[in-house]
């Protein structure tokens, strides 16, 4: 740029520097997003035998006729007490993930510790086509699609049937009628359009909706035309208890057709799978 006296001055434009700053900030934001996505990725780890079966099969799929998924402490406790209480089941895998509420299940290669919130897979020895999944860890909304895609991506969809058992607080149940205490806990069901089986309890009434992993699994089955039925238990107890677990007992009729179950358990045995907490009071301390 020339001045009035003919002096040539260099021109400085802040636009170039501002564009560079914006580009650097954008690249930094993208890197942060990538790191967050990697940290929140869901990983499925199988035992050596199952991993070899997946690699040996041409389609990288496991032959699975029935998948039973338990979501929540009471549903998982019910399966532990009534189904997984024999030596006929082998732990064959687990899902590892990290989020704000599930920090302990992020180890990819190490199975969760006993009592730790986790997502574990079991397979029946006499009938390897039957898989059981116990999920007691929180799965965030942005991880639900990953979970369903990766778990069902390992299974042969042809001939597959899915059953989901889920816990839910009764406060989330919407009804125009008053619920008496004796009516809780109770079961409600919801099926995919491909399911032709008769539900063992009344259907979930409108305007009630499903959320979390049960909703993601049922939606996946609906999209891929997989027969699936969900049994939602509405309870007023937060921690696992024997009464809520026994609410799932009607499904034993279906499960007994898949695998051999032990005779009905006594109340004392069932309580071993419940967490008993004594109320502490400091009124007189």
UniProtKB/TrEMBL annotation:
This protein's record includes keyword Chaperone: yes
Keywords, sorted A to Z: Chaperone
GO MF annotations, alphabetized: proteasome binding
Source superkingdom: Eukaryota
Record-level GO BP terms: proteasome core complex assembly
Matching Pfam families: PAC1 (PF16094)
Listed InterPro entries: Proteasome_assmbl_chp_1
One GO CC annotation: endoplasmic reticulum
Coiled coil spans: none
Protein family per UniProt: Belongs to the PSMG1 family.
Name the UniProt record assigns to this protein: Proteasome assembly chaperone 1
Species annotation: Coregonus suidteri
């Amino acid at each position: 740029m020339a001045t009035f006296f003919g002096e040539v001055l260099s021109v400085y434009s802040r636009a170039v520097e501002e564009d560079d700053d914006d580009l650097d900030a954008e690249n930094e934001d993208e890197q942060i997003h990538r790191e967050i996505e990697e940290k929140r990725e869901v990983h499925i780890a199988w035992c050596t035998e199952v991993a070899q079966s997946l690699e040996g099969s041409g389609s990288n799929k496991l032959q699975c006729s029935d998948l039973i998924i338990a979501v929540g402490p009471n549903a998982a406790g019910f399966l532990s007490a009534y189904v997984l209480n024999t030596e006929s089941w082998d732990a064959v895998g687990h899902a590892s993930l990290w989020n704000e509420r599930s920090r302990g299940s992020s180890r990819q290669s190490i199975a969760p510790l006993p009592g730790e919130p986790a997502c574990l897979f079991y397979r029946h020895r006499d009938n390897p086509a039957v898989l059981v999944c116990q999920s007691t860890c929180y799965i965030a909304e942005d991880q639900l699609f990953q979970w369903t895609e990766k778990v069902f991506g390992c299974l042969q969809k042809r001939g597959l049937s899915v059953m989901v058992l889920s816990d839910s607080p009764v406060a989330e149940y919407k009804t125009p009628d008053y619920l008496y205490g004796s009516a809780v806990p109770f079961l409600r069901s919801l099926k995919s359009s491909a399911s032709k089986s008769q539900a063992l309890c009344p259907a979930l009434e409108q305007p009630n909706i499903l959320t979390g992993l049960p909703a993601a699994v049922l939606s996946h089955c609906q999209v891929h035309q997989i027969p699936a039925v969900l049994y939602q238990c509405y309870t007023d107890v937060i921690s696992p208890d024997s009464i809520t677990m026994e609410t799932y007992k009607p499904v034993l009729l279906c499960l007994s057709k898949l695998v051999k179950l032990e005779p009905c358990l006594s109340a004392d045995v069932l309580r071993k799978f419940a967490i008993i907490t004594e109320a502490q009071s400091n009124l007189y301390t």
